[in-house]
Amino acid sequence: MLHAGPAEVAALSAAGAAVGAAVAVPLGPWVEFRRKRPVLIAMDLARCAALLTIPVAFVLGALTYVQLLLVSVVVAAGDITFRAASGAYLKALVPGEDLLVANARFEATAWTTTIIGPPLGGAAVGLLGPVATVAADAVSHLLSALGIRATGGPEPQPEHRRARGLRAGDLLDGWRYLLADASLRPLFFNTVLFNGLLMASQPLLAVLMLGRLGFAPWQYGLAFAAPSIGGLLGARLARPLAARFGQREILVAAGTLRAIWPIGLAFVGPGTGGLLLVIGVEFGLILCCGVFNPVHATYRLERTANDRVTRTLSAWAVTTKASTALLTAVWGVLGGLLGPRTAIGLLGALLLATPLLLPHRTPARPSEPEPAPSRT
C-alpha cells in the first residue's frame, strides 16, 4: 500500500528483527528479578498498542514506511522478551516431570497455527485488506494478555535485585552462563547456527520456486503448509521417545536427522515432481523438528538455574534473531552471485555439519544456588 520495493520490504524484515534484538538485550536482566506474569501482560499490551498505530495512522492518512519500521522493532523486542519471560514462568508453574508434556503441547499448538494461520491470513488480507488484518493481529495480543491475566497458580517471588541496579556488565550475564555450561554451550551453538542457516534458505527458495521454476503462489503455500502435519506428529512422539531412550539421545538423534533433509531442496525441479519433492523434504524436516523442539526446550529449562532462566533465554533469542538476520543478508548476496539453487545447496552442506555441535555427552547437572544464610 506504500509502494515499497523489494529492498525496502527486505530491510523492514531484517532491520526490525536486528534492532529489536538489540533493544531486548537490557530487558533480559531487568525481567529476571521481576514477576513474570506482569511482564508477559506488559509485552502483549505493548505489541498491541504498537500494531494499533498502523490502522489509526492509515485512517488519518499519515502511515509511513518509517512507522512500519518502528512498529517492527517494538514487536520484535516484545517477542524476544515475552518468550524469555514465558520460559521462566512455565518453569515456575509446571512441576519438573511435566515440563516435557507442556512443551510438547506448545509445539503442537505452534504447528497447528502454522497449518491454519497463513491460509486464514491470506484470505483475511484478500477479503478485508492488510490494515484490518493488522488490527486483528493487535487484538490477538490483547486477548493473549487477558488469557495470561486469568492464569491460575501462584508465582514465586523472584530474588530481589541488589540496590546497585543494572550495570553494563549485567547485560552479558546470559551469554556468560551459556558459554560456561558444558551442556548448554553446544546446544546453543547448534540451534543458533541451524535456525539461522535454515531461515536464510527461505528467501532463496521463494525466488527459485516462484520465479525460475514457475510455481503458482498457492502451490508454494501448499508446499510448506501441508508438511506442517509432521510437526503435530513429532510433538506427539517427543515424550514417549524421550521416556524410552532419554532426552540427550533424542536430542542427538532428532538433531542429526533434521540436518539431513534441507540439502534436498537444492534439487527441486519444475512441475508436480518438484512440488512433491519439496513437500517430502519439508515433511521429514518438520517431523524431526517436531520431536527435537520440545525435548530441546525441556532440556534447556531443566539445566538452567532458576535465577538465570530469563537472562539465558533472552540471550539465546537475541543471538538467534541477530544471526538469522546476518545469515539471511549474506546468503541473499551469495544467491545473487551464485544463483539460488547453488546457494541453497551450500546451505544444505553446512547444515550437515551442525550435528557435530550437539551435546554428545551429559555433564553433571548444575546445582541450584543455595539460599543465603540468615543473619541473626
Automatic annotation (TrEMBL):
Membrane spanning residue stretches: 6-27, 187-211, 217-238, 250-268, 274-292, 313-334, 340-358
SUPFAM superfamilies per record: MFS general substrate transporter (SSF103473)
Primary subcellular site in the record, as a coarse category: membrane
InterPro entries named in the record: MFS, MFS_trans_sf
UniProt membrane topology term: Multi-pass membrane protein
Pfam families according to UniProt: MFS_1
Domain of life: Bacteria
Subcellular location: Cell membrane
Keywords: Cell membrane, Membrane, Transmembrane, Transmembrane helix
Protein name: MFS family permease
